[in-house]
Amino acid sequence: xxxxxxxxxxxxxxxxxxxxxxxxxxxxxxxxxxxxxxxxxxxxxxxxxxxxxxxxxxxxxxxxxxxxxxxxxxxxxxxxxxxxxxxxxxxxxxxxxxxxxxxxxxxxxxxxxxxxxxxxxxxxxxxxxxxxxxxxxxxxxxxxxxxxxxxxxxxxxxxxxxxxxxxxxxxxxxxxxxxxxxxxxxxxxxxxxxxxxxxxxxxxxxxxxxxxxxxxxxxxxxxxxxxxxxxxxxxxxxxxxxxxxxxxxxxxxxxxxxxxxxxxxxxxxxxxxxxxxxxxxxxxxxxxxxxxxxxxxxxxxxxxxxxxxxxxxxxxxxxxxxxxxxxxxxx
Amino acid sequence: xxxxxxxxxxxxxxxxxxxxxxxxxxxxxxxxxxxxxxxxxxxxxxxxxxxxxxxxxxxxxxxxxxxxxxxxxxxxxxxxxxxxxxxxxxxxxxxxxxxxxxxxxxxxxxxxxxxxxxxxxxxxxxxxxxxxxxxxxxxxxxxxxxxxxxxxxxxxxxxxxxxxxxxxxxxxxxxxxxxxxxxxxxxxxxxxxxxxxxxxxxxxxxxxxxxxxxxxxxxxxxxxxxxxxxxxxxxxxxxxxxxxxxxxxxxxxxxxxxxxxxxxxxxxxxxxxxxxxxxxxxxxxxxxxxxxxxxxxxxxxxxxxxxxxxxxxxxxxxxxxxxx
Lengths: 331, 324
Ligand SMILES: Cc1ncc(C[n+]2csc(CCOP(=O)(O)OP(=O)(O)O)c2C)c(N)n1
Ligand SMILES: [Mg+2]
What we know:
The complex is a heterodimer.
Chain A: E1 3-5, H1 6-20, E2 24-28, H2 44-48, E3 53-55, H3 60-72, E4 76-80, H4 91-98, H5 101-104, E5 114-119, H6 134-138, E6 144-146, H7 151-163, E7 168-173, E8 180-182, E9 196-199, E10 204-208, H8 212-225, E11 230-234, E12 237-239, H9 243-253, E13 256-263, H10 268-280, E14 289-293, H11 302-305, H12 312-323
Parallel strand pairs in A: 2-3, 2-4, 4-5, 5-7, 6-7, 10-11, 10-13, 13-14
Antiparallel strand pairs in A: 1-8, 6-12, 9-11
Helix pairs in contact in A: 1-7, 3-4, 8-12, 9-10
Chain B: H1 7-32, H2 47-54, E1 62-65, H3 70-75, H4 80-87, E2 111-114, H5 122-135, E3 141-146, H6 153-164, E4 169-175, E5 178-179, E6 182-183, H7 184-187, H8 192-197, E7 202-207, H9 211-226, E8 232-237, H10 257-266, H11 269-279, H12 285-308
Parallel strand pairs in B: 1-2, 1-3, 3-4, 4-8, 7-8
Antiparallel strand pairs in B: 5-6
Helix pairs in contact in B: 1-2, 1-11, 1-12, 2-9, 4-12, 5-6
Thiamine diphosphate (TPP) sits between chains B (67-68, 116-118, 145-149, 174, 176, 178-180, 244) and A (29, 58, 60, 82, 86, 89).
């Protein structure tokens, strides 16, 4: 199968859906000629014109609100938010408006929009350009949240997001834009709420989102060499969450670590760990362990930044302890 | 113009502009030689804005800065060593390596921080001015931001309050013609100064490549702001020589080489001011060359110092999340 980058995969998904549905359009800063700073949208304005690939002023709440209104009245806007950190600027439009309109209208109005943005630290971009804020939006009922872990997921999830009748937020890891993965030429969609078992195992389950899937897979390889068999699962969407697949795995392995790049406290890892405790308590041989980013703003200095995120070494280390029964009372 | 009476002020302004340009040339070199982590936004070309304004301020006056903040930082009194250390993420940096280029600031000289959120400091600057008024202090706060930032709604919320409450704040819009890869006229409808005027704020437009014009205007406005006649708005017409950031090299698709050449050759704030100093007999060519050389040497030493300086200890990672 051919291999393409995550950036190309997103680009293809957008182009295919824009060809298919004339009500779709892209709205954001430097999306047209510049194709975004990460060049993810290169070439789209040439095909679809500036009517459908629209450069906006630096007015995030404004253009997100405009997308909500357009979505409510028959269009399918795709908002490009240059950095995930800017989600704080659009919270009202996203969480008070987009998320609640279907419910508040008793199901009469829909907001079929996509907000695509990014996440991920270790790019030396400091505290306001490095955050992984998926937990914030996942907390709000009415929003769906997708976290692609490779080019394959990025394309399939984006196409599903655009066709979904709800507001969907997609977080792409900005450090993965150039990572290649096999992506079929033929059209495919990845349904929301269906986790992907990346690697089967029997001793411990590593549940990981986005780029943390790579971290978990590397840890699993290290562990395999030591005789520990780790299962790696990528939920792909955190809302909706495929609880069934996660629970089934944990009931089999009896141990789990949940890994996500958002801050650990009150985060995605906490939520998934709780669900595992509630749904598989009597099958567990050890507490479910959360591994998120340190609870600190992301520091600029490489010497500090690199220790804020989970690494394969630390995941493997934690898994070893869990399998040895060391952490049973530690949590 | 009574040039002779202001000799020291003029020489300091020249010096500060050259210090900014020299800092940026070294920062760019650090990026190109892969010694600097991440990216950085160069202030080269806009020196007369930061210097003209900051030379009208005292150490008690505050500023807020932007992602393109090295110039503001130098102009408000920062030293090279701690700046280069910050740029390289070293412990002795102004922010102990936690901020880097986009958050660099010498807090001891009234710099409240460089902000990586476009327009993100407008509330902060206005709040600083409200504090001055409430506590009876006579300092003034200058809020630096770009033309692109005028699209942020926050600006209109705080200008409204600043005008209602007559706050000692000066909104300094550095109009360099572009926000990222987009021309200002494509993202700003109508006139920028008229937006401030809509709130009853006195607004001026000034040639941002003319350090004396910027300084003379700012002096007047600062004096009036201290007396409670603020707020004010200044649109400074300027130009950035480099790309949006150091990695923005192939940029002809949005900005022509001819246009860049024209600004660099015909409107450079340092070349213009240097000619003025020589013409007025304030400094000789030799004196200016000596000053330039001394600044270059200081920068080279500071870079070497920063390269050799230690990173913060890993134990600092969770230090400063909360104040004691
Ligand atoms: C809220 C927000 N939106 C977008 C960005 C990305 N961004 C960084 S600088 C910039 C352009 C800013 O233009 P301008 O205000 O004119 O300042 P200049 O870079 O020209 O100095 C953009 C869009 C950001 N940092 N913050
Ligand atoms: Mg600008």
